[in-house]
Write a structure and sequence with these properties.
Blueprint: H1 2-16, E1 68-69, H2 74-79, E2 93-97, H3 100-116, E3 119-124, H4 128-137, E4 142-145, H5 150-157, E5 162-163, E6 165-167, E7 173-174
Parallel strand pairs: 1-5, 2-3, 3-4
Antiparallel strand pairs: 2-6, 6-7
Length: about 200
């Protein structure tokens, strides 16, 4: 009871001094060290609506990651084995740009990406309009603009310079989603786009 009166008295004392009792602040970083996970893939649903005006407040275009359109080789994928720990991944994550190769890849693999529950990050987009066009092409797949550079920096340090690519839920990298059991190979092999 005495503690309650002390809390109430402190509150009224602060109010009387004109100090605000609630202060708006920047988001709190919970952990920023080994084992920290970027939040980008968890925010894709916020920008999933192609009919939504704009993207996300604060996202600036152009988006550039230092990666380039290309095809991930099997050797590169093997080199990256273990790069991403499975416990970091809530679901598969794919990286695309707004370039012709990314558009072709997204069209070719859209249904498989949706079936996997994969979320996409756009690592290259010259404008909001280009981002929205790729978002529309993604159909029902969640797609968000890349904010920050942790993921792409990690990939580049491991020798991965190209996108589109898919990081599977077990941490493996691949240039295309795994085929479902019994699926027929209907898609033609992806050709590298020429600018």
């Amino acid at each position: 009871m005495k503690a309650m009166r002390l809390v109430a008295a402190s509150f009224w004392c602060l109010m009387g001094m004109g100090l605000p009792t609630m202060v708006l602040s920047q988001p709190v970083v919970i952990h920023s060290g080994a084992g920290a996970v970027p939040m980008g893939t968890y925010l894709g649903h916020l920008v999933a609506g192609v009919d939504q005006a704009g993207v996300l407040e604060g996202v600036r275009f152009p988006i550039r990651s230092g990666m380039v359109p290309g095809v991930l080789s099997e050797a590169q994928a093997r080199t990256a084995s273990g790069l991403f720990r499975p416990e970091w991944l809530a679901h598969p994550v794919f990286l695309v740009g707004t370039d012709p190769l990314s558009r072709q890849w997204l069209s070719q693999h859209r249904q498989a990406l949706i079936a996997l529950g994969a979320s996409g990050l756009v690592v290259q987009a010259e404008s909001e309009r280009a981002f929205k066009q790729v978002q529309q092409l993604a159909g029902g797949a969640s797609l968000a603009p890349m904010v920050g550079d942790w993921l792409t920096t990690t990939l580049r340090r491991a020798g991965m310079q190209t996108y589109p690519l898919l990081v599977l839920a077990d941490g493996r990298l691949t240039s295309s989603p795994p085929r479902a059991a019994g699926a027929s190979p209907t898609a033609a092999p992806m050709q590298e786009a020429r600018p």
